[in-house]
């Protein structure tokens, strides 16, 4: 075992020496520093998700507040933040390598003041035109970008053996922002809808200040775009991005649409207040998915997740046919849990895949250190790319429900399309990561690490 080396710091809270794979280094200093940065990363990312999904809780309150928008217009207000957030995830991913993880956490936290301020302004006047609401909702996408930069940054702090759990906890803490905003907004809005935006200003400022004084930048994460851009040329980057549409896209899409979906399909239930439960159980399931992937293999857990999501869709269809809200709610709870497990397992697969690639390159002549560093950098980029592509599912699902309602008067058609999608995702996962021929060809896969 090599002797642990102290972290080497310079101005601006930069750490020049970072070797989490060295057990001595990790025990002496690495774990403590990584834990501190993880906690603060969770706080900033949590607020990012809160702001990103703010409109999912607002739209069900707008008609009562005097804004006569149609159901289709309301679905656009919950879909647009997801479209913008998905698009912003790519530049946010590479912002970590350009500016440093700590520096970008501070900046991305302060940017959240824009959407909450605009929301408070929009709802203060019932004569505000719809297009201004769309603009304000679009800026909420700034919160969606936080996830990509946070996950890419955290991936550098942790050793390979702990990444599944660390990434799962980081993501779960962020995802919980969806449940929190859907729980809190109905209560604070009682005293005025404007408070649904203003209530987040103080937490955002506190988070930015804490990130400034307590987080660190890692020199190992700072690299030029051309180095990270190799991830764009890796086949598995795009395969995993596609699978992530099915896992995270489902979670964020259902989270955004569920309050409005309940109001549209079971208006007599008056149960839109319970919508936060879906995002809550999905968020809590995410680190479990990472933990299971560490032990049972990410591809296997991902396969289970898609199979269970298909069952959840069938349950939701049965609930609609019987007009049984308990059955419908239970089916969506199953969907949320399965998508949360799949989020954790798919994200665990990405660093494992790139580590396997590094092992092959080392066997072909590259030094193990160089191959390992390149793998970490490409994996961080792939994580951001997958998070961006996957988040587009958060746009497609609300729009799918809206179009189905508009054309058929029910959401059955959308659910059947989603069911077909899960079959395709399941087949893709099997083809690339579960076939015996591939397991025999890639030792790291055969050993269950992916």
Query: Whole-number radius of gyration?
Result: 22 Å
Q: How many structural units, i.e. domains?
A: 1
End-to-end span in angstroms?
A: 27 Å
Number of strand elements: 3
Mean of residue pLDDT values:
88
Task: Indicate the low-confidence ranges by residue numbers.
Answer: 1-6, 443-448
Give a structural overview:
The protein is mainly alpha-helical and 450 residues long. It has one domain: Up-down Bundle (Growth Hormone, Chain: A), CATH 1.20.1250.20. 78% of the residues lie in helices and 1% in strands. It contains 20 helices and 3 strands. The protein has a 3-stranded mixed β-sheet with strand order 1-2-3. Strand 1 (9-10) and strand 2 form a beta hairpin. Helix 3 runs antiparallel to helix 16 and helix 14 (298-321) packs antiparallel against helix 18. The longest helix has 39 residues, at 325-363. The two termini are 27 Å apart. The model is unreliable at 1-6 and 443-448 (pLDDT under 50).
């Amino acid at each position: 075992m090599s002797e642990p080396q102290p972290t080497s710091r310079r101005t601006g809270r930069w750490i020049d020496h970072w070797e989490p794979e060295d057990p001595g280094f990790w025990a002496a200093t690495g774990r403590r520093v990584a834990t501190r940065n993880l906690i603060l990363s969770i706080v900033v990312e949590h607020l990012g998700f809160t702001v990103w999904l703010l409109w999912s809780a607002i739209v069900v309150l707008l008609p009562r507040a005097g804004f006569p928008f149609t159901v289709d217009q309301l679905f656009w207000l919950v879909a647009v933040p997801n479209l913008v957030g998905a698009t912003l995830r790519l530049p946010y991913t590479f912002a970590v390598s350009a500016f440093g993880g700590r520096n970008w956490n501070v900046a991305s936290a302060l940017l959240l003041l824009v959407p909450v301020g605009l929301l408070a302004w929009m709802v203060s006047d019932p004569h505000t035109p719809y297009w201004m609401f769309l603009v304000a909702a679009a800026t909420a996408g700034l919160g969606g970008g936080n996830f990509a930069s946070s996950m890419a940054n955290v991936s550098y702090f942790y050793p390979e053996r702990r990444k599944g759990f660390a990434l799962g906890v980081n993501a779960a803490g962020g995802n919980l922002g969806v449940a929190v905003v859907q729980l809190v907004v109905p209560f604070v809005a009682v005293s005025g809808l404007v408070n649904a935006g203003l209530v987040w200003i103080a937490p955002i400022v506190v988070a930015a200040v804490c990130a400034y004084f307590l987080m660190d930048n890692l020199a190992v994460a700072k690299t030029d775009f051309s180095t990270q851009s190799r991830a764009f040329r890796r086949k598995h980057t795009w395969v995993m991005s596609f699978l992530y549409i099915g896992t995270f896209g489902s979670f964020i899409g259902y989270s955004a649409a569920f309050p409005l979906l309940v109001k549209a399909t079971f208006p007599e239930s008056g149960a839109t207040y319970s919508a936060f439960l879906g995002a809550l159980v999905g968020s809590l399931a995410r680190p479990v998915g990472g933990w299971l992937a560490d032990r049972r293999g990410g591809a296997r857990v991902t396969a289970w997740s898609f199979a269970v999501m298909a069952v959840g869709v069938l349950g939701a269809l049965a609930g609609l046919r019987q007009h049984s809200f308990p059955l419908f709610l239970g089916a969506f709870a199953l969907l949320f849990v399965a998508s949360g497990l799949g989020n954790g397992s798919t994200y665990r697969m990405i660093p494992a895949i790139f580590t396997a690639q590094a092992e092959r390159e080392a066997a072909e002549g590259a030094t193990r250190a160089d191959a390992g560093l390149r793998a970490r950098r490409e994996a961080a980029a792939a994580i951001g790319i997958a998070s961006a592509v996957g988040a587009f599912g958060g746009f497609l699902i609300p729009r799918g429900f809206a179009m189905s309602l508009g054309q058929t008067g029910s959401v059955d058609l959308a659910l059947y399309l989603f069911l077909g999608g899960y079959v395709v995702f399941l087949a893709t996962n099997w083809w690339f990561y579960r076939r015996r021929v591939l397991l025999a060809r890639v030792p790291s896969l055969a050993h269950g690490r992916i």
